[in-house]
Amino acid sequence: MGFFTGSNVAFAILDAGHRVVEANKAASQLWSMSPEEVIGADASALFLNPDIEILAQRFSRAGAGNTVGFRAVARVGNGKGSPVEVHVASLGDGTVGLVVHDLSTLQRLERQHVREAEQYRSLFMNAPLPMREEDFSAVGEWLKELRESGIHNLNAYLDDNPDEVETAIRSVRPLRVNPACVRLLKADSAAQVLAGFRDVELTPGVVASFRTQFEALWNGDTHAEYQFIGHNYAGETFECRIYWNLRKNPDPSILHIDATMLDFTDLRRTQSRLEQQIADRDDFLAGVSHQIRTPLAAVLGLSEELQYQWNDLSKDERLDLLGIVVQQGFELAGLVEDLLVASSAQMDQVKWRPEPTLLVAEARRAIDLLDHARGRKLDIDLRGHEIAAWADPSRVRQILRNLIANAIKHGGSHVVIETGGDDSKNCAFVDVRDDGTGIPEEYTTAAFEPYWRSHRHTTNVTSLGIGLSVARDLARTMGGDVTYSYEDGWATFRLCLPLTQDESE
């Protein structure tokens, strides 16, 4: 009687006419009736469905030792219903006992569980970070067997048994991956990732990653994080940090792992680029210092000597010293002009004044500038017919000076300059060729980048590595271009500029 009256489950006893003769407090609460109202109530007043005839049939089937269970809807007040599960047992003399379980709370929890599961699935699938779920149950059994066999130092055991490590890795079963993970791994589909490691080569990075996870499980950790360097399905290296979490499960034999991957491959590449740029900057500043200091020291030193020893020097000695000052001045002026262009080209501030420009004449002037700067007559073969381009003469000389200086410094022993025109491209061109080995194929694009001369490619500290970059920037500013080719033992840099109106006609 104490159990009947004190239970939080609804109990009721019906007589042969299916009227309530006894009910506990939980029954009154379920049906939203006072105890007095419940007693004497007909079963048809207690349930919305099924009707009393169906109830009577079900009650009659409840005999000795036989119970009948069914789902129904209890009338809870104001005509509303609440889902319940009813169990009926015969008590003799036509009376039956009812045990009525309120299912509304259970259904509410089920709906909440479904809603939370859907929310989790949505967050998982739409998360911008790569995520994956894996079943480590087989690994858990393996680790349990190792511990029961007396293994105490898992790390040493794994070192001695690499085959078992590989078997354990291949036993891990991927359960789910999100699209971000598929993109990170550059897989054809999620199915490719879910195939796991059964038929793929286990790289040292993969083995090290799983060993970290095995040791975390061995130590009873529920969270872990570690760095991972691996290869995606396209064979490319990527680097990420993995945040690993052991999901709780009522069944301790089931081990599900959630892993979130923070990809910082681009960050590492950017960091490497910045480090290289800093190194290149330092090299560049050192080169600038050397390039400026050398001619400047000559100009200052010789000028000072001329100033204080003018009367002690012969006419020829004065002319020789002044010639060196002029040569070094030309060298310094060309360097400063290139630095100004290299700086302003990045800001689209290069100034130029276009006019009809004779390319052969400008090529001769560029050679003369280099003759003065080097203090000797350069052996350069100038060929081709005179042709006019629509360009700034001073900028054309600057481009040709850089291209010719590059050929002399880095090319072969013979330098040839040839002018011409290409009507199909509305182009007047100057080819600067040398019979050297040319630029290695893998560097043909990088050679036009600013400051490409660096300790990675050359030991020539007297070169700033901006000549080709300046030449191309100036040519493109004036509507042309500088291109490179290597054929039949000749390296060729071609300056192409728009033809003047007269030439194009």
Question: Which descriptors would you attach to this protein?
Answer:
25% strand, six-stranded antiparallel sheet, five-stranded antiparallel sheet
Can you describe this structure?
It is a single chain. β1 (10-14) and β2 form a beta hairpin. Helices cover 46% and strands 25% of the residues. The strands form four sheets. A six-stranded antiparallel sheet has the order 2-1-6-5-4-3. Strands 8-7-11-10-9 form a five-stranded antiparallel sheet, with helices on both faces. It has a five-stranded mixed sheet with strand order 13-15-16-18-17. It has helices spanning 2-6, 25-31, 35-38, 43-46, 52-61, 104-126, 137-148, 154-160, 162-171, 179-185, 190-194, 204-218, 265-309, 315-345, 359-374, 393-410, 467-477, 501-504; strands at 10-14, 20-23, 47-49, 67-77, 80-92, 95-102, 131-135, 173-177, 223-231, 237-247, 256-263, 355-358, 380-383, 388-391, 415-422, 427-434, 481-487, 490-498. It is elongated. By secondary structure, it is α+β, with helices and mostly antiparallel strands.
Q: What fraction of residues sit in β-strands? A: 15-25%
Distance between the termini: 117 Å
The helicity comes to: 40-55%
The biggest beta sheet is recorded as: 6 strands, antiparallel
The number of distinct β-strands equals 18
Unreliable stretches covering 5 or more consecutive residues? 454-462
Shape: elongated
**Strand order, largest beta sheet:** 2-1-6-5-4-3
What Rg is obtained from the alpha carbons, in whole angstroms?
Answer: 45 Å
